[in-house]
Prior knowledge:
Low-confidence stretches: 288-308
Strand content: under 5%
Number of helices: 10
Amino acid sequence: MAHMQNIEVLVREFLAYRGFFTTLKSFEFECKNDRNKSFRVDRIIESIQLAINSSDLHELRDIWKNLDAFFFNKLEQNFSEAVKKLESGLFKVYLVVAQNSGRSEKIADFFVKMASEIHSNTDWRDWFYFQYCKSPEEHPSFAVYFTKNYHDTLFLSLHNFLATIFQSMPLPTLMRTESETAQIKKLQEENAKLRNRLQVSQQQQQAMSSGMTQHQSRQQMFMDKKTRAGNVQNTNEIIPFDIQPPIHLVDDFFIIAQESLSISENQSRGFKSIIRNISSGSSPVMGRKDSSHDFGKGKRSGSVGNRS
């Protein structure tokens, strides 16, 4: 509804361009006496309050009939009860304001003109006594309608109800064209922003990918060097499980050679000792023979002596 005035300007230009001057005059007159107030809810509420405060029953009924004909009759059936409650509340407030203003003739005129419409409504049954009640503001059936809270709640509910209806109304093609153009422009701007953000994000991602690739290659080279160095070090440090290494590592062939050498040396020493004994006359073999011979001689002489 915010573009209503712009659309009206376009219509005036079009009618003048086509030479529809009689239609243009009628259009100008209708715009000045627009009862829908260009679908501005605040202006409609102000016109209703003005009719109530001035006790203008005719104006109040015209405003409501116009709303009912153009908007309320097009609503679904489940909204009819809400429309009736709002209408009944407005007319009751009209009577309360007239009572507070001391306009008893307006109250009597109301029941004369509205009797045919409200006499069958059970909600108005007690209100036929209103014009005869001396203190209606103290009567249990009317006291609540004299409070400011009721008035404020009623007009707020009417304002929200009308605003909801106007926002839910399907727009004509002429008004949709302008709104759709504005929406398309807005979407194009949002798409441009998103496209720029996507491009920046892709550039950042590429930069990060190249940086990660270089870093990974350097890290891989470092790991390869470390792995090779670790393999050499681990080979040198291998220790068999549960086997104590020998204190001195000696070659077996060296041990065999040493044993052979000691055996040959012992043999040579034996031979040398035998030869030395023979040459010195103290052979152990010869010595054993001489001693045995002497021992035999002694045995024999001794035996002979014993026999004698």
